[in-house]
Amino acid sequence: MFVLSAAPMVAHPSPSPSPRHAVSLNPTAEKLLLAASELMISSNSIEVSLSEIAQQSGVNAALVKYHFGNKDGLLLALLERDAANEMTNLEYLLAQPISATAKLRLHIAGIIKAYNQFPYMNRLIHYLLHESSDKSADEVSKFFVGPLLNFHRRLLAEGHKTGEFRVVDPVLFYTSLIGACDNLFFSRHAMSRAIGVGPVTDDVCRAYVAHLEMLLLDGMLTNKKAGAKAR
Predict the structure, then answer these.
(1) In this structure, are residues 212 and 112 in contact, taking their beta carbons and an 8 Å threshold?
(2) Single pTM value for the model
(3) Which residue spans within 2-95 are E strands per DSSP?
(4) What does the pLDDT look like over 26-69, one tens digit per residue?
(5) Domain 78-231, CATH homologous superfamily name and number
(6) 221 DSSP 8-state letter
(7) What span, in angstroms and rounded, lies between the C-alpha atoms of 148 and 144?
(8) CA 156 to CA 79: how far, in whole Å?
(9) Distance between CA 17 and CA 90 in Å, rounded?
(10) What residues form DSSP beta bridges with 88?
(11) Please, are residues 59 and 33 in contact by the beta-carbon 8 Å criterion?
């Protein structure tokens, strides 16, 4: 998982991605995904056209259909690429010989790291779940929403069993954590206009990790002093 320290954000060593996520794409397909990602980040929007993606990548727009079927196929491949590392690490994190509290801290940092790298991620998830095809929605549920909810359920149960956590609804926890992570990046533009806050930097991410830990863990831990040491 990702660990945030005083230095720039770095990744903790972890196993290689599983075969499902280690999708092998040729250089042209990779260029299209990279271009779409760059455009979404620079525009703070997932509303990018095929012509914009083609211009950014230097690849003919017709090749989107060849490699991905259509634009939604490209967006689905982009989301799976972006989420792959974090999703692969879930089982690895659960297996570590550390407390559930320490695992949760690492998970919070990892999710924020992923959103910092790909700030459009949650909007892309919502689009593919609710505004695209049933097939796309099923795929997102299989490789992202379902595994993440299952991870939260198992981690929260582990923490409750060891006496670290109170009883916490995993669906409400998922909603709180993922919504809070998305809001940091999605709302930043509006806040910058309203009160002049700056961009999301590594320092901002570290501060937000600490903020979310305080909000979430203070309401979950049965022994807050012990939880403060579980780092």
Answers:
(1) yes
(2) 0.77
(3) 2-3, 10-11
(4) 899 999 999 999 999 998 889 999 999 999 999 999 999 999 99
(5) Tetracycline Repressor, domain 2 (1.10.357.10)
(6) B
(7) 6
(8) 26
(9) 11
(10) none
(11) no
